[in-house]
Amino acid sequence: MTDPKIPPQSQDSMPADEFRMDPAPDYAPRHPGVGKLRDKVAIVCGGDSGIGRAISVLFAREGARVAIAYLEESRDAEETKRLVEEEGAECLLIEGDLGQKDRCETAVAKVIDTWGKLDILINNGAQQWLDEDFADLSEERIDRMLASNVKAYMFMTQAALPHLKEGAAIVNTSSINAFAGNASLVTYSTTRGASLAFSRSMAKNLMDRGIRVNAVAPGPIWTPFIPGTMPAEQVEDFGSGAPMGRAGQPWEVATAFLFLASSDGNYFTGQTLHPNGGMVVGA
């Protein structure tokens, strides 16, 4: 695969905007759909951009109706809705801060009111900042990251559980940083470790109900996280240090979520897939 050169760039918001990125992340599915998610209803948290956009479009191609929950990036969300509908699928946009339990309950209620059921929950929304001086990291910053990256996953799962039946799937986003650690992303890495432990624990908790829970731990992927987190000079040629010599694209991660959410992954629960460009980490 040819890697498009990534020029210096940064944004002053988190979450950042996909429509401002150069080059644009590659979300597009590579293969025709075969109905792996036909008649399924999925919620994709953080589905407006990045990996979430790629998941939403891929799930739509495979026959799912897709609800996209996002914080406030309406322009990106509307574009993802358009892309989902281009695949012939129904799409519901749900704006709000999922770090608040009542917003999660409202989001799930909207899906049930619209489609009458829920089969797949993708906990993918998150925020990330560099910890330039951990000793001086503010309580507000820590609380914001915990709310987005940990509480939201737990609250969404709580809200979804009354509606999930045998055969349902939950897939949570973790990170290579949960396994390898990252000196500049201490808080983010800690929250991704939490999502990993949450996935493994909930897999055991829900085993008797026939609900599978797994995780995906991406490596360096070209998403709005990157210009929204790093100084422009660090963004240049992002991902070139990976064994494959390039950053991954969102579509290359979405396929892992499809595998775990579909019946292809029926014998997987409590597991983690690692689309990370060849970095070897503990499973």
TrEMBL record:
User: What's a single GO MF annotation on this record?
Assistant: oxidoreductase activity, acting on CH-OH group of donors
The answer to whether the entry has keyword Chloroplast is no
Q: Which keywords, in A-to-Z order, does the entry hold?
A: Oxidoreductase
E.C. numbers? 1.-.-.-
Q: What is the lineage of its organism?
A: Bacteria, Pseudomonadati, Pseudomonadota, Alphaproteobacteria, Rhodobacterales
Q: Report whether Oxidoreductase shows up as a keyword of the record.
A: yes
Q: Which residues form the signal peptide?
A: none
Q: Could you identify this protein by its name?
A: General stress protein 39
Name the source's superkingdom.
Bacteria
Q: Where is this region: Disordered?
A: 1-33
Q: Which family does it belong to?
A: Belongs to the short-chain dehydrogenases/reductases (SDR) family.
Query: What EC class does the entry list?
Result: oxidoreductase
| Cross-referenced PANTHER family | NADPH-DEPENDENT ALDEHYDE REDUCTASE 1, CHLOROPLASTIC, NADPH-DEPENDENT ALDEHYDE REDUCTASE-LIKE PROTEIN, CHLOROPLASTIC-RELATED
